[in-house]
Amino acid sequence: MREITYRDALREALREEMLRDETVFVLGEDVGRYWKGAFKVTKGLAEEFGDERVQDTPISESAIIGVATGAAITGMRPVAEIMFGDLSTLAMDQIANQAAKLRYMFGGQTKVPLVIRMPFGAGVNIAAHHSQSLEAWFIHVPGLKVAVPSTPYDAKGLLKTAIRDDNPVMFFEHKLLYSIKELVPKEEYTVPLGVADVKREGEDVTIVATLYMVHKSLAAAEELIKQGISAEVIDPRTLVPLDKETIVKSVKKTGRIVIVTEDCKTGGVSAEISAVVAEEAIDYLDAPVKRVAEPDTPIPFSPPLEKFVIPDENKIIGAVKEVVH
Amino acid sequence: MTLEKRKKIEMYRKLLEIRHFEEKVYDLYGQNLVPGTIHLYAGQEAVAVGVCANLRRDDYITSTHRGHGHCIAKGAQLNRVMAEILGKKTGYCKGKGGSMHIANFSVGMLGATAVVGAGLPIAAGAGLSIRLRKTDQVVACFFGEGASNQGTFHEGINMAALWKLPVLFVCENNLYAMGTRQSRVMAIENVADRGVAYGIPGVVVDGNDVMAVYEAACEAVERARSGKGPTLIECKTYRHKGHSRFDPATYRPKEEVEEWMKRDPITRFRARLLEMKTLTEEEADKIEQDVAAAVEDAVKFAVESPFPAPEEALEHVYI
Ligand SMILES: Cc1ncc(C[n+]2csc(CCOP(=O)(O)OP(=O)(O)O)c2C)c(N)n1
After folding, report:
1. Nearest protein CA to atom 5 of ligand 1, as residue
2. A302: which of A164, B95, B126, B202 fits an S-S bond (Cβ 3.0–4.6 Å)?
3. Are residues A74 and A17 in the same domain?
4. pLDDT at residue A27 in the model
């Protein structure tokens, strides 16, 4: 074990998979030797594997995903980087109509082993075009898998699994996570898609949180225990497939659930998780489902405005107290 | 073409306004007064100034993440642009937009977009609206050479060309999109050559020569106002700083940077104005001092302005 950052963990996953399998290659805007990725995830890869396997592209998101899809259905395993998750909007047809549907539409003749990595999320004051959390858009598209790692360990293990998966996987990386550190084994390991992780055990309330909100929820849980409230924090780690069982089991134990996500509340990830709980555990609930999410606005620029719309410890603690009392 | 003296002096002042403004933004960033990130326009001033000097107040522009200069050239007030960059309530967008998303509709500045290439179809749409409303306004759409590889460039210009819309597509080719040199992502040298594909004129100009830009834009504006359709103007230029505040720009060869620094648009224009006896040394210095003072005032205004109240985050989602 040694301590590495989320950024390093992702790089190790890419590197190990590129060493293991020659068909794995990386492409995206400024992923190569000159810039090394907007968040430096691909640093050193071009030097090690050459510019062809770490391919810089023009600013053409739609074509990046299109060519990655074309390569994927003809024997390669591309890992495409979209510089900011918000810009996946430009590639939406290639992602949602092409990559996601080709296998189904063509009756199972092909497969699309493609990973699309995207930094996203708010917290650094770069406003409405570079701060969104769009996971919910993609969970609505059959054919796509959606990974949302919150720790270096999970990031590495999930990225390796995603690269080996024969389906297109949307891989969400929160910008504020890149520098967080954790002990990660030196030895090879993977994390399966569809298995949630209980990040903290507790008795009184279940908090389901994703990505950066996992860390805010853990901080909130730490504070809550001082006030006599024991919170269980669950990180689904992937949204498609979703580990319903772990969530439902926890709710059956605690009887209360607070869902914390950074995306907009309406039609968001939290709505889907709420529905799962309503369908499968409503009889076990002692209080209504509570959601802490972005209040349906674009992300504003100015720091006090951005802070106001993004969930934080206080908002989580407030929500937990509402369901516990 | 003979330009009135007054006009030339006005252009000189605008060039300086942008340069001084950007230097201040750079300093303020260092003092942690600018949230987020910044993309400075220093080095490219002649493009915004040369184009906008041809525009009327009711003409439109669209802009990019590197947009402070476009805003100022179109006539926005320095203090309110600065306030927006600092995230203040007195900024043009009330702190919602910030450096990458400034708009000032009162001077026809239809907004900067941080999504590379997104402005081209929007500019074409403003052109369509001009056509439908039967006015004689024009639109100038600024974008980088990196943006010319987006579908929106091709789709937007095709429509504008097809419908002969009154739009100037102004490509600011500063050779690099972040760390990517143009030659590594395009098989052609001139973005302007793409005009042929859509049946419109594509012209290349020295983007560090404000008079050359002025003249090219003048012709394109005449064409646009008289219903002949859009022009693609490629201005060859260079950014003085890195892509954003913390980019040391090590991907650019030192000699290349030095070469371009020698072609600084402001130094060149000043020399020319002195040579043509449009200005004396003293007059030129006086203008610069006035500009520096105006920029200082803008900084003071912005720094002293309040932040918006947190709940204002909920306003303006819908009407
Ligand atoms: C659609 C889109 N893709 C990628 C980015 C990230 N990005 C921001 S600026 C930039 C480079 C833009 O280059 P260019 O259009 O030439 O403008 P310049 O920065 O040189 O002024 C990139 C890739 C973005 N903001 N939007």
Report:
1. B116
2. B95
3. yes
4. 98
- What letters, b where the CB count within 10 A reaches 16 and e where it falls short, cover B90-112? bbbbbbbbbbbbbbbeebbbbbb
Helices (H), B226-280: 254-262, 265-275
Taking all residues of chain B, what is their mean pLDDT, rounded to a whole number? Answer: 97
Split into its structural domains, chain A has a count of: 2
Distance from C-alpha of A7 to C-alpha of A222, rounded to nearest angstrom = 26
pLDDT greater than 80 at residue B29? yes
The tens digit of pLDDT for each residue in B175-223 reads 999 999 999 999 999 999 999 999 999 999 999 999 999 999 999 999 9
CA of B228 to the centre of ligand 1 (A): 30
Q: What is the pTM of this model?
A: 0.97
Question: Is the ipTM, as predicted for this complex, more than 0.90?
Answer: yes
CB A158 within 8 A of CB A6: no
CA-B115 nearest atom, ligand 1: 26
Instruction: Retrieve residue A138's tokens.
Output: 């993609």
Select the CATH number that applies to the domain covering B5-299 from these four: 3.40.50.720, 1.20.120.80, 3.30.70.100, 3.40.50.970: 3.40.50.970
* 8 Å CB contact between A84 and A132: no
Among A33, A54, A301, the strongest candidate for a mutation testing the B interface, having the largest count of B CBs within 10 A, is A301
- Range 250-269 of B in CB contact (< 8 A) with A: 251
Q: What's the pLDDT at B3?
A: 79
Instruction: Give the Cα separation of A101 and A94 in Å (integer).
Output: 10
Residues B174-183: tens digit of each pLDDT: 999 999 999 9
Where are chain B's structural domains?
5-299
Structure tokens at A230: 């024991």
Domain span holding position A30: 2-184
Contact criterion met (CB < 8 Å) for A305 and B117? no
**Rounded Cα gap, residues B184 and A30, in angstroms:** 11
Active site annotation includes A215: no
For residue A167, give the nearest of A135, A197, A133, A194 by alpha carbon.
A194
Distance B65 CA to ligand 1 centre (A): 8
Q: Which two tokens stand for residue A46?
A: 């071009």
The answer to whether A23 and B168 have CB atoms below 8 angstroms apart is: no
Beta-carbon count within 10 A of A15 CB: 16
- Alpha-carbon span A240 to A198, nearest angstrom: 17
Ligand 1 mean position to B73 CA, how many Å? 21
